[in-house]
Write a structure and sequence with these properties.
8-stranded mixed beta sheet, 5-stranded mixed beta sheet, elongated, alpha/beta, Aminopeptidase, lysosome, aminopeptidase activity, Glucose Oxidase, domain 1, about 500 residues, binds zinc ion, CPQ, 13 helices, signal
């Protein structure tokens, strides 16, 4: 069945057109501002819901290009695909250079070694990006388990020569921010303490024996050690065997490799504003993915949402007041090099970046709108939310907009906005072989795409600018574990959530 037939909902369109409340001023048209706003909403939200274009694009990206880790041939293929796609959409696009790390996965396996207490078995593991390899024969060592960096520090010399198992009890998406530091900084801390290897329990909200990879980093002067994620199931088994007393030994073989840095690109595209083309509304997502699965939720979904927003806005006459600029960032997952390269290359323009959005929490349905702006932001944005009512997203959420690729824009006080998506299943698949197209629901993707298209238009069209947020007291850390999705806000009130049109 085509995505289009799943998505189209006449009832939704009727309620969209009947949406109450509109801004006092807005779209330039001979009609009243309110009518003009509703007409524009119909022309953006309608096609996003009914044409299935974002879904078709996501299918192309995931099925014909697949996983696209920085430095790989497929990452380069994704760059070319994005350029071709923008061209086909009538949106002017170009590349901007980015030097990226080039880490590759090799052979990898883990083994719980038999003892007098238990039989041996294989362990489901996956090297963390940035891990060192083991020697070809692997490393064999006793496991010591900790659940925090403080616990690791307290062990002192007892870490020497061991494989450190970082355990935690991630249950819900909100836990990701709480435990991602174990993956990001744990291996470096363990290496410093003399460990020979690291296993990190996968950062997952569900598991069918699926390891979840992700980036790790080693501090200056610390020699990287072999570091892998292990499935929730195997981490719990190791935990039980350790808790019942006696040594637990594992063998790890990791064939990963750090190659010389590679040349790559951000893809940038633009729809020029009609009245204030020098003012830029940036909408971004990351084009790279991990090297497993096909990066469908992370972040193919975000990529096609912002591309589709640009395609739909580009075909409107008149164009919105300000310029809409799409940035498909390279290397969010294991370096944020694209984000830094963009901020450096466009430093002089950042004061004219009047709003920025990053979509990087998967292809779930929209829950509401997030902002990060100075005083009065909510009042400015609220009159533009009406067209999101039928999508169940006409709510300003208390959580702040942001994103890893936008973090270099924070010191420049760029206001931020976002459409928060339902990420309740996101961490079931995140960074695994299972992050594939079949996990994305076409209806949800279309609804979030519609919300992104409309909010982008609103930001580019609203008469006044968002007040810039206060400068942070210290520069944000750009080397923190990347791919941070922090759906940290409490469950949002959802107004008028639509029933998913079923087949
Ligand atoms: Zn991501």
């Amino acid at each position: 069945m085509s995505a289009t037939s799943l998505i189209f909902s006449p009832a939704l369109m009727i309620s969209l057109l009947a949406a109450p409340s509109a801004p006092k001023a807005g779209a330039s048209s001979s009609a009243s501002p309110q009518a003009a706003q509703l007409q524009m909403a119909e022309r953006l939200v309608g096609p996003a819901l009914t044409e299935g274009h974002a879904w078709a694009r996501l299918t192309e990206l995931t099925d014909t290009i697949g996983p696209r880790l920085s430095g790989s041939e497929s990452a380069e293929a994704a760059v070319q695909w994005a350029l071709r796609s923008f061209k086909a959409d009538g949106v002017k696009a170009w590349t901007e250079p980015v030097k990226v790390p080039h880490w590759i996965r090799g052979e990898e396996h883990g083994e719980l070694l038999a003892s007098e207490r238990f039989r041996g078995k294989s362990l489901q593991i996956m090297a963390l990006g940035g891990s060192a390899p083991t020697p070809p024969e692997g490393i064999t060592a006793e496991v010591v388990e900790v659940s925090s960096l403080e616990e690791l520090a307290a062990l002192g010399d007892r870490v020497k020569g061991r494989v450190v198992l970082f355990s935690h009890d991630m249950k819900v998406p909100e836990d990701y921010g709480k435990f991602a530091g174990l993956r990001g900084r744990g291996p470096s801390a363990a290496a410093k303490a003399g460990a020979v290897g690291v296993l990190v329990r996968s950062l997952a909200t569900a598991s069918l024996s699926t390891p979840h990879t992700g980036a790790t980093g080693f501090a200056e002067g610390i020699k990287p050690i072999p570091s892998a994620s292990v499935t929730v199931e195997d981490a719990l088994l190791l935990h039980r065997l350790l808790a019942s007393g006696g040594p637990v030994r594992v063998r790890l073989v990791l064939g990963c490799k750090e190659l010389p840095e590679a040349d790559s690109f951000n893809v940038v595209a633009e729809v020029k504003g009609r009245e204030k083309p020098e003012e830029i509304v940036l909408i971004g997502a990351h084009l790279d993915s991990w090297d497993v699965g096909s990066g469908a939720h992370d972040d193919g979904a975000g990529v096609v949402m912002v591309m589709e927003a640009a395609r739909l806005i580009a075909r409107q006459k008149p164009a919105p007041r300000r310029t809409v600029r799409v940035v498909l960032f390279m290397n969010e997952e294991n370096g944020l090099r694209g984000a830094k390269a963009y901020a450096d290359a466009h430093a002089a323009e950042l004061p004219r970046h009047v709003a920025a959005l990053e979509m990087d929490s998967g292809g779930g349905r929209p829950l509401g709108v997030q902002l990060r702006a100075g005083e009065g932001g909510s009042e400015l944005v609220r009159p533009w939310l009406a067209p999101l009512t039928a999508l169940g997203a006409a709510t300003l959420l208390s959580s702040e907009a942001g994103g890893a690729d936008l973090s270099p824009l924070v010191p420049a006080q760029v206001p931020m906005f976002s459409v928060r998506t339902d990420a309740s299943r996101y961490f079931d698949y995140h960074h695994t072989h299972a992050d594939t197209l079949d996990k994305v629901e076409p209806e949800a993707l279309a609804q979030s795409t519609a919300a992104v298209a409309w909010m982008t238009y609103a930001m580019a069209e609203m008469p006044s600018l968002l007040v810039r947020p206060a400068a942070p007291s210290k520069a944000p850390s750009l080397v923190a574990p990347p791919s941070q999705v922090h759906p940290t806000a409490p469950a949002a009130p959802v107004v008028g959530a639509p029933k998913t049109p079923g087949p």
